[in-house]
Design goal:
two-stranded antiparallel sheet; 174 residues; five-stranded mixed β-sheet; alpha+beta; 34% helix
Length: 174
């Protein structure tokens, strides 16, 4: 006596059932990993790191002043070397929005090259390293699954400031 299958599927139903099984098995894996949200270093902490980098390069850091970039725009230089006309400005998103017309655009081909600007008029001898807070991001997630830690962001900031100071010393900026 021949055996009859208990369930007969037509070809179109069989294809539909196979597709449904494939879709369900694909959805049963772990959810895709998404990047942790990041934020820039707090300006107060960034200024501490900048001042420490100045001291490491044997410069005495003092609070900066404003430097004219154009007739309408002044850049606040956060930290300068005492008695000298070079310093660092840690620029936040709101400051960037106000200064956008006066700051030269960053060339994407230059990667993370330092952005140096000079003042105009009475400030023409001032050299400023403009550091964007968006370049020093970290996540504050706890555990091993981290994008970047605060230490990584602070070390990058310290490196960039020290690189600028090496340039300032090499070019004998006063």
């Amino acid at each position: 006596m021949p055996c009859e299958p208990l369930l007969r599927l037509e070809p179109s139903r069989a294809l539909f059932a196979a597709l449904a099984v494939a879709l369900l098995s694909a959805c049963s894996g772990p959810p895709p990993r998404v990047a942790n949200p990041t934020r820039p270093l707090d300006e107060r902490r960034a200024l501490e790191v900048i001042a420490d980098a100045f001291r490491e390069e044997r410069e005495h850091p003092v609070p900066g002043t404003d430097v004219s970039l154009s007739a309408q725009h002044r850049l606040h230089v956060d930290v300068v070397a005492e008695g000298k006309r070079f310093g660092v400005a840690y620029v936040t998103a709101s400051e960037r929005a106000q200064l956008e017309p006066a700051l030269p655009a960053r060339d994407p081909k230059m990667g993370d090259a330092l952005q140096l600007v000079s003042g105009i008029g009475a400030d023409s001898d001032a050299r400023v390293c403009v550091l964007n807070d968006a370049d020093y991001l970290y996540d504050d997630q706890v555990g091993d699954a981290r994008e970047k830690s605060t230490t990584t962001a602070e070390l990058k900031l310290r490196r960039d400031v020290r690189d600028f100071l090496v340039i300032a010393h090499r070019e004998r900026l006063r």
